[in-house]
């Protein structure tokens, strides 16, 4: 979250600024919008925003190290939106919804580097007792997560991607004839899509910024637009690592020596690579020749996959054979009525049944599939997806002759099998015991209770193995891929994910995986565990709510990529779900997500509380205002989990919520801190990460709270917490700590439930 794994092609943005500034043009977005209306009367001016590359520019509050100035930030977002609305420009915001497996190594590399940056920040705070300068700036923990919900609360169209967002941003801009893309990622110079505007250079008051021209870049480099994806790959990107390209760069520099000694090495490499590929015929054969020049190791398709990753729906490339061009027919119909995973199921006399099935990253695999193993080999050697489609060939007896892959619509399960086998999924299934199939697919166990009874016969308690795939195919055909009842829990989770309505649920259900980026935590503070460890017990309960257990009571593991000091991130941690202590047992998702009535509302609330071991506090918590109840849930959980919390710490948190409600964003911005305490910085981060855990539990339990009531601007401010923390630890009186009177904010009686949880807090409330 501190920064996307890689913001495009390293050095390209700087190269443009210093070597070919003509590529950059200052433009007035209001004037461009007026021209857009004239030239495209059927397309109102829309700018699609790469939000992940914008958050660091949106966060302008002076204080960033204390946990976040959330009310100030919310006001900033509102001002940003209003500026574009005044010019008649609609904004569509995209956020990264996943970390793609192909980019995991880069993600890990960046996270470990961020750990070092965070350590330097804490060293500075301890030495100088103040916040570092902007040159050490990192965004507050969980800022992108809460930004999604902030924009939704402000009425904006907000999309959480099913793959890394830059592709979806570029595709949306192309499909909807958008006025432009706003961000700070040089990949948008490579995609052949809408114009690319800089968020870094944006002057909001005048709506003026820099527009980067792909055409002018090509003119300077002597290339065509079709060369740009190959150029990006040969300079190094998320798919083709730079470490494999050093020898190639050296060869290019020998052929085309630097002409200007004032240029950086990176600029000279870029010019030399561009010169080299300008002389290469644009063909698939040329690409294969280039692959032979590179030390690609066991994966000879890196270059191919890199070029393919820049192709948007409907586009072709001379570097890719026409018969497989754009096999990823990505669906970008992400409106409110989207996520209708319509089958393309065309039985042809039960002889050839091609299925165009949806990839877990949201890509539809297209083109008529050809019969035979030659097709399978050629596709699997070129296409970047591990499983691209299925070819089901039936003899009259129904026996399958060939299966090259199987992926269910809206049921991305291949990752579970790829971790354990090198075979394609159907082949694996054909060799597995029927109970193993059931136990190996968490989402199947989760949703099987929602399927029609006649479809569940295949998962009956049997002692034999599946000697052929006929039973599996009968099961799949009986499902008929009808959206109204096909895995409705996953379908709903997917819709909510894309529309930024839930948090983390879809990735857990679909991939059994979750990640959390760096947090501003002090690795030298041994008394406060990492937030990833503090909230793991709650997450284990949440996983149990989402993933049904097998007949033996065992749950599938969830793969966690959580960043904390001491975790080398060499592999995911396998976390076992644990049932929460819900009175009467944990309801299933069918009840939590689809049932209605007051009894169900009570079940949702009690299940949520049980995830934090607060099920006995239900009556007291329901009497509170929702944001205060959420705050109390989190604080009580911290009391139970972190033994080192002192009475002074708890007093500071309670004073924070009591005093925050009566303050405006301007008042909070005006707070001045004489110094910054590093331990309070750490505690503030732990609290903010706890709010994301509340969001996850709320999403899993069917939303007993409105998501808006669990937002940080309702219950936290970094500077105010620092002030209360320091006052409390100085021994200030309760009257001073609570600013004289809080009777106009929240009655102290509403906190009586805390007395049941921890005796030391009684001293706070009995005065």
Automatic annotation (TrEMBL):
<dbReference type="InterPro" id="IPR029060">
    <property type="entry name" value="PIN-like_dom_sf"/>
</dbReference>
<dbReference type="InterPro" id="IPR026784">
    <property type="entry name" value="Coact_PPARg"/>
</dbReference>
<comment type="subunit">
    <text>Interacts with ESR1 and RXRA. Interacts with PPARG; in a ligand-independent manner.</text>
</comment>
<keyword id="KW-0010">Activator</keyword>
<dbReference type="GO" id="GO:0045444">
    <property type="term" value="P:fat cell differentiation"/>
</dbReference>
<keyword id="KW-0221">Differentiation</keyword>
<dbReference type="GO" id="GO:0005634">
    <property type="term" value="C:nucleus"/>
</dbReference>
<keyword id="KW-0805">Transcription regulation</keyword>
<comment type="function">
    <text>Functions as a transactivator of PPARG and ESR1. Functions in adipogenesis through PPARG activation.</text>
</comment>
<comment type="similarity">
    <text>Belongs to the constitutive coactivator of PPAR-gamma family.</text>
</comment>
<keyword id="KW-0804">Transcription</keyword>
<keyword id="KW-0539">Nucleus</keyword>
<protein>
    <recommendedName>
        <fullName>Constitutive coactivator of peroxisome proliferator-activated receptor gamma</fullName>
    </recommendedName>
</protein>
<dbReference type="GO" id="GO:0035357">
    <property type="term" value="P:peroxisome proliferator activated receptor signaling pathway"/>
</dbReference>
């Amino acid at each position: 979250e501190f920064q996307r794994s890689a913001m495009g092609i390293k050095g390209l943005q700087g190269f443009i600024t210093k070597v070919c500034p003509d590529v950059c043009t200052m433009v007035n977005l209001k004037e461009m919008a007026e021209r857009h209306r004239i030239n495209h009367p059927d397309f109102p001016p829309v700018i699609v925003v790469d939000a992940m590359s914008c958050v660091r520019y949106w966060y302008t509050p002076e204080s960033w190290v204390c946990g976040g100035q959330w009310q100030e930030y919310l006001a900033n977002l509102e001002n940003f939106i209003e500026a574009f609305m005044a010019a008649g420009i609609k904004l569509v915001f995209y956020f990264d919804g996943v970390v793609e497996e192909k980019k995991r190594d880069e993600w890990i590399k960046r996270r470990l580097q961020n750990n070092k940056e965070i350590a330097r920040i804490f060293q500075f705070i301890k030495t100088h007792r103040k916040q570092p300068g902007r040159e050490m700036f990192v965004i507050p923990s969980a800022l992108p997560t809460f930004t999604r919900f902030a924009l939704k609360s402000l009425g904006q169209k907000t999309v959480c991607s099913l793959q890394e967002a830059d592709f979806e941003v570029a595709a949306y801009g192309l499909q909807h004839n958008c006025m432009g893309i706003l961000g700070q990622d040089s990949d948008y110079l490579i995609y052949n899509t809408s114009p690319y505007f800089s968020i870094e250079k944006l002057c909001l008051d005048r709506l003026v910024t820099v527009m980067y021209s792909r055409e002018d870049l090509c003119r300077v480099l002597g290339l065509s637009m079709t060369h740009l994806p190959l150029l990006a790959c040969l300079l190094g990107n998320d798919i083709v690592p730079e470490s494999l390209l050093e020898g190639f760069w050296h060869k290019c520099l020998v052929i085309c020596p630097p002409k200007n000694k004032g240029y950086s090495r990176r600029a000279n490499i870029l010019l030399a690579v561009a010169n080299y590929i300008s002389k290469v015929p644009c063909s698939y054969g040329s690409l294969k020749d280039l692959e032979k020049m590179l030390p690609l190791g066991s994966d000879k398709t890196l270059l191919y996959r890199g070029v393919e990753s820049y192709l948007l729906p409907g586009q072709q490339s001379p570097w890719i054979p026409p018969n497989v061009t754009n096999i990823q027919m990505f669906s970008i119909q992400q409106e409110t009525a989207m996520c209708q995973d319509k089958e393309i199921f065309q039985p042809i006399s039960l002889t050839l049944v091609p299925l165009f099935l949806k990839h877990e990253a949201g890509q539809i695999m297209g083109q008529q599939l050809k019969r035979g193993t030659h097709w399978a080999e050629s596709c699997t050697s070129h296409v970047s997806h591990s499983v691209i489609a299925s070819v089901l060939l039936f003899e009259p007896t129904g026996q399958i002759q060939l299966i090259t892959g199987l992926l269910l619509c809206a049921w991305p399960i291949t990752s579970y099998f790829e971790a354990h086998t090198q075979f394609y999924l159907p082949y694996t299934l054909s060799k597995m015991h029927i109970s193993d199939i059931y136990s190996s697919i968490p989402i199947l166990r989760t949703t099987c209770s929602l399927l029609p009874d006649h479809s569940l016969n295949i998962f009956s308690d049997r002692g034999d193995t599946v000697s052929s795939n006929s039973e599996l195919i009968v099961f799949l055909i009986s499902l008929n891929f009808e959206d109204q009842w096909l895995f409705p829990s996953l379908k709903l989770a997917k819709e909510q994910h894309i529309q930024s309505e839930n948090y983390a649920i879809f990735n857990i259900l679909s991939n059994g995986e979750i990640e959390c980026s760096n947090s501003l935590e002090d690795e030298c503070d041994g008394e406060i565990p990492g937030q990833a460890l503090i909230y793991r017990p709650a997450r284990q309960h949440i996983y149990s709510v989402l993933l049904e257990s097998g007949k033996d009571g065992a749950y599938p593991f969830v793969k966690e990529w959580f960043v904390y000091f001491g975790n080398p991130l060499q592999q995911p941690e396998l976390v076992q779900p644990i049932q929460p202590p819900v009175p009467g047992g944990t309801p299933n998702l069918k009840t939590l997500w689809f049932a209605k009535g007051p009894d169900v509302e009570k079940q949702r609330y009690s299940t949520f509380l049980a995830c934090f071991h607060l099920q006995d506090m239900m009556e007291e918590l329901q009497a509170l205002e929702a944001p205060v109840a959420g705050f109390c849930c989190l604080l009580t959980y911290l009391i139970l989990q972190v033994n080192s919390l002192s009475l002074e710490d708890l007093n500071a948190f309670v004073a924070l919520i009591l005093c925050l409600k009566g303050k405006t964003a301007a008042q909070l911005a005006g707070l001045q801190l004489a110094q910054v305490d590093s331990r309070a910085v750490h505690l503030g981060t732990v609290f903010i990460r706890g709010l994301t855990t509340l969001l996850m539990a709320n999403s899993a339990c069917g939303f007993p709270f409105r998501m808006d009531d669990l937002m940080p601007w309702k219950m936290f401010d970094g500077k105010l917490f620092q002030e209360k923390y320091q006052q409390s630890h100085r021994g200030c009186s309760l009257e001073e700590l609570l600013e004289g009177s809080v009777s106009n904010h929240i009655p102290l009686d509403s906190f009586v439930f805390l007395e049941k949880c921890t005796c030391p807090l009684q001293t706070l409330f009995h005065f």
